[in-house]
Amino acid sequence: MNFKGGHILSVNQFDREAIEQVFNVAHQMLPYAKRQKRTTVLDGAILGNLFFEPSTRTRVSFGTAFNLLGGEVRETTGLSNSALAKGESLYDTARVLSGYSDIIAMRHPDTGSVAEFAQGSRIPVINGGDGANEHPTQALLDLYTIQKELEHHGSGIDGMHIAMIGDLKYGRTVHSLSKLLCLFKNVRFTLISPKELSMPQGIIDVIENAGHQYKITEQFEGSLDADICYQTRIQEERFPSQQEANQYRGKFRLNQQIYTKHFQSKTVIMHPLPRDSRAEANELDNDLNLNPNLAIFRQTDNGVLVRMALFALTLGVENIVSQFDQKVCWHVNP
Ligand code: CP
Q: Model's pTM, two decimal places?
């Protein structure tokens, strides 16, 4: 895969070699993310960070990643604050905004919108989530986390068993992650969701065609030998009505008791976040916060590394980052 100058719109663009390339560069970004040193390799470069749908970690970690490489960030948040609300097309918006920056990260509520925007852009565009479709950078950071977590257990992604739980219909992170996992060998999928929120057939087809085993179920059953338990939130913003979403909130709660009953003591717990901590939902209980297998905040930290790597590769500076090293002279927490 040739990253330099290209868009990152879908996980379909990736093969195992490209994933390895991203992960190798991400690993090299650790001292910068930990503030052990800093780099100004992107001094003068501008990121257009366009978030037309709510976000905390994707938006801020894209911005942080770009700042950590020495670049500047310009943001637009919310559809109603942009000229899209006045009827401007995605194409026109892209033509304009690509004249103001060097690279764009974008989230939008509609499937295919980021790809449509990219057609009008003269600079690289990275998909930060398009509707219920894809979230490629989340999938890459999830996969990076899975690899790191399983390394601690002396295993790897080939041959692993993942349980995906919750809203598998509208949850774009499980769509993108499933596709990436299909590039590996002998992965087992246990897909736990209400029937109405099951994994789309298109993703099941990808799993089947890649020769992996999968099981579809509507409940936690017995003891699961999953290496990874990937919990998701009911994506209420994608339902036709709040009333319909409410039928499913709170259906698949994971707390310490349920975890102990159904999972191994070493099963890694992941969630793309945000978790819905309101009492009627609470799909990932706070009583798991001190469980050492809870990897959710390691995921968010890894997001910065992976997004730094994608910027470095896309802007063609991955091999010269350390040539622009500088000392950190402020207090840094260990
Ligand atoms: N995981 C994720 O996409 O989080 P945000 O919606 O906060 O960006």
A: 0.96
